[in-house]
Each structure stands twice: as structure tokens, then as C-alpha cells.
Amino acid sequence: MINKPMQDAMNEQINKEMFSSYLYLSMAAYFENKNLPGFANWMRIQADEEREHAMKFYDFILERGGRVLLKAIDAPKTDWKSNLEVAEEVAAHEAMVTASINDLYELALKEKDYPAQVMLQWFITEQVEEESSAAQVVADLKLIEDRGTAVLMLDKQLSKRQAE
Ligand SMILES: [Fe+2]
Ligand SMILES: [Fe+2]
Q1: Measured between alpha carbons, how far is residue 12 from residues 86, 95, 137 in Å?
Q2: Which of 99, 108, 126, 163 ranks highest by number of CB atoms within 10 Å?
Q3: How far is the CA of 146 from the centre of ligand 2 (A)?
Q4: What is the pLDDT of residues 15-30, one digit of tens each?
Q5: Which of left, alpha, beta for 74 (phi over 0: left; psi -120 to 50: alpha)?
Q6: How far is the CA of 56 from the centre of ligand 1 (A)?
Q7: How far, in Å, from the CA of 108 to the mean position of ligand 1?
């Protein structure tokens, strides 16, 4: 059975993943309003993935005989200055989530919770990919700056992203 410190920390993580999902949905709406459906697609897929992450913790807590205690989700930002600012915020947010996953892993080591350690390894790997894909979009946007044709090309490319 999952112990109290681990359960509390994972409930906190559910909230962080749900907030990430909410934040990315807000970013998707921002891009839709700017007529950038490809960027919006990228953010929508990310939002779905974050909800799946939340559900992995949700299911894990229940499977281990714990209690899922959902908390209020903060309202996300609704406006950004530029596409680059959005991408930079995604990158910063993912780095924050990585730190939080690492803290959970530390706790699982301290509590000698071996099933949690195994489960968290999936997230550690996932965060490497999440950070690298956000960094790629940041780099692309820095390179193209505000050149319209290039922004459109990147939008087309991001429209092809699919859920994994
Ligand atoms: Fe996540
Ligand atoms: Fe993520």
C-alpha cells in the first residue's frame, strides 16, 4: 500500500499535470485566435498528454490502495506577447515539472517505495523528450523571428504532430 507522504506528493503531482494541461489548452486557444492552427495542434496534443500523465498518477494511487484527493486547478494565463514567449514558457514549465518529478523520485528512494521508483522512471524518460521538443520549437522560433513565411512553414510542420 502507498504511504501517506508518497500519496500526498502524488496528489500534488496530479494537480500539476492537470494545471499543465489547462495551461497548454489556453495556449492552444491563443494560437487558434492568431490563425496558427499548427501551433494550436501542437499545444492541444500536449494538453491531452498532460491529462494522461495526471491519470497515470491517479491510477497508480488507486492501484496501491491510496486515496485520490483532487485539488482546485489554478486559472492559466490567457495572453502572451509573441509565439516565442509561449514556447519559452512551455520550456520553462516543463523544466519545472522535471524538477517536481525528480523530487518525487527522491521521495520514493527515501520512503523505499520500489513500485513508485519504477513508475517514476517512465516520467523521468518522458521529461527528457518533453524538454527537448519544447527547446526545439524555441530554437526554431528564435531563428525565424517574425518572418511570416517561415512562421507559416513551422505552423504547417506543427500541424502534422500527432499524439504518441
Ligand atoms: Fe506531464
Ligand atoms: Fe509535459
Answers
A1: 25, 17, 28
A2: 108
A3: 26
A4: 999 999 999 999 999 9
A5: beta
A6: 10
A7: 18
